[in-house]
Amino acid sequence: EAQVTQNPRYLITVTGKKLTVTCSQNMNHEYMSWYRQDPGLGLRQIYYSMNVEVTDKGDVPEGYKVSRKEKRNFPLILESPSPNQTSLYFCASSSGTGVFHNSPLHFGNGTRLTVT
Amino acid sequence: GESVGLHLPTLSVQEGDNSIINCAYSNSASDYFIWYKQESGKGPQFIIDIRSNMDKRQGQRVTVLLNKTVKHLSLQIAATQPGDSAVYFCAEKGAGGYQKVTFGIGTKLQVIP
Fold it and tell me: Could you please report the per-residue DSSP string of A49-114?
């Protein structure tokens, strides 16, 4: 089954404790992206990757890092989480031609992060 | 449950009736539009898309209408079912090269049995 898999689904942590949210897709997609979703604000892009070893900042990159060492994986790293990073996070992927030639994003089921 | 549904405009529809969800987009240069459905506890799911050279596109029980003159997009769901209850949001993408997708805040659809 074609899917985007995120782990964990729920995570509660404390301020300053480094964490990683994993994302993996099995559709051989070139493009991957991370979003956060907050009430009243909709989906906002954190980072995206056009292909292996190619990453770029989205609209709200502060406090986050990503890496793209393999095509299927795109982990989101919070080096020193803060309470304002409490949110619902989504990973998404799209076929390589999609970014330029229009194809929809495929989303994971989300990671609910709480930073206390 | 997830809190993403809070603070959203809500549309309540009787089961079996048709639903119309509206979206105003901001960029007149956008050339690709997508509707997503997000159920509680899940990620957004693609429903239907439309390119700017079209005014209407139909899927199974869903129709998307695009009015470029007033920058308006609508999603029509025929014979609404309880399983259609979810948050629906539109997304737009600009033309030419890499253009990121911009998402609307969404509308919560409640189907009354």
Answer: EEETTEEEE-S--TT-EE--SSSSB--EEESS--GGG-EEEEEEEE-TTHHHHT---EE---EEEE
Q: What is the mean pLDDT of residues B84-104?
A: 85
B36 to chain A: which residues are within 8 Å by CB?
A: 104, 107
- CA-to-CA distance for A112 and A12, rounded, in angstroms? 8
For residue range A21-64, list pLDDT tens digits in order: 999 999 999 999 999 999 888 899 999 998 999 999 999 999 99
Which of B4, B98, B103 is nearest residue A88 as measured by Cβ atoms? Answer: B4
d(CA B87, CA B75): 12
**Of A4, A42, A92, which has the smallest distance from its Cβ to B105's Cβ?**
A42
Distance from C-alpha of B24 to C-alpha of B42, rounded to nearest angstrom: 25
Looking at the complex, does the CB of residue B2 fall below 8 Å from at least one CB of chain A?
yes
